[in-house]
Amino acid sequence: MSDAAVTTKVPVATSASGRLFRGQTAIDFYGRRKFGIAISILLIVATVVSLGSRGLNLGIDFEGGTSWDIPASDFTVDEADAVLADLAIDTEGSRIQSRNSDAGSFLKVQVRSLTDAQASAVRAALADAAGLNVDVINVNVVSASWGSDITNKALRALIIFLVVVAIFISLRFEWRMALAAIIAMLHDVVISVGLYSIFGFVVTPATVIAFLTILGYSLYDTIVVFDRVRENETRFTTTRIPFGDVTNVSMNQVLMRSANTSISSVLPVIALLVVGAGIFHASTLSEFAVALLLGMLTGTYSSIFVAAPMLAALKNRAEPWQRAKGRVVTGADLRELVLGGAPKSRRSRDGEGNTAHDASPSDDATAILQHAPRPRKRRRR
């Protein structure tokens, strides 16, 4: 064989970041599935306990409240907050934000429901602090029915979305992938709601909209993984390897893409929190951005530790993967599959937990051919 016919393998990077960048990782995601499922179960239990004991911190759009519009460009959020504190007004779930319109700049203050006497006192105090006449400050009563109407419509939209997604994935891929994707999306919503309950974040209509938005993000990340899984199913369908190997190979091959997607999606949301909420005091942006951030983090987590292991559990009970024997490969053998190598015929593990390969039929045939021939017997005459 000439030197030109020899194929040079790409060297494996020595650092973890280099292997991630080159797509040379060999992480045993399938072997760590129990760890991920345990974390999910713990978070779901904490969600149930928190919702049962504390519930959700609903904003005034859901529980009703009173709002004042102060037409003053030089009246700040801190000054309005100080007025409420001096009057001992409960500011839990309240919103104070600056707004601009064609009529000019004004400050909008919203708090929970007050009595008529308290509302009049707050109006007079705000007018005095802003140096305005009381009559120029508009007072509005927010009804709780508006928030309830948004919630009911959001629930209907969620049900329709899940049905459409299930039909699409079943036709595009298969029903097992549809079931795993829906479980992962419900997992993201439940845990996001649980985190809102645990940390006491205020739930507003913007939060509900953000919860519906993160479903699309979670689905996108899961579909990316499932699309690669389907490609590797075709690649390994004639080999007798467990579906755990297909899962590990697929996850390692799309790991860099998932990381780039998550980083590029999270950075704008962090910018909304820092610039919009922190600098410009836009409370609506903070309510939307917090829900998006939590949903994106849980969506990335669920596509790795919920959707993929759930699909592997379903596929292991289906043909032809049900007949596959042996344990999943790890280390250098897994990296070889990730980089496009062919799987070995059979696998087992030695006493130290390392991946060991049994002799293949071709090795047995070679050994037989190399055996010394038996001496020929002489015939009797």
At the first level of CATH, what is the class of the largest domain?
A: Mainly Alpha
Q: Looking at this structure, what is the CATH superfamily of the largest domain?
A: Multidrug efflux transporter AcrB transmembrane domain
Please state the overall shape, judged from the principal axes of the Cα atoms. Answer: elongated
Main sheet makeup: 4 strands, antiparallel
CATH fold type of the largest domain:
Multidrug efflux transporter AcrB transmembrane fold
Summarize the amount of helix as a percent range. Answer: 55-70%
Secondary-structure element order, as H and E?
HHEHEHEEHEHHEHHHHHEEH
Strand order of the largest sheet: 3-4-2-5
Poorly predicted tracts of residues: 1-8, 346-371
The DSSP helix count reads 13
Q: Mean of residue pLDDT?
A: 79
Radius of gyration: 31 Å
Distance between the termini: 52 Å
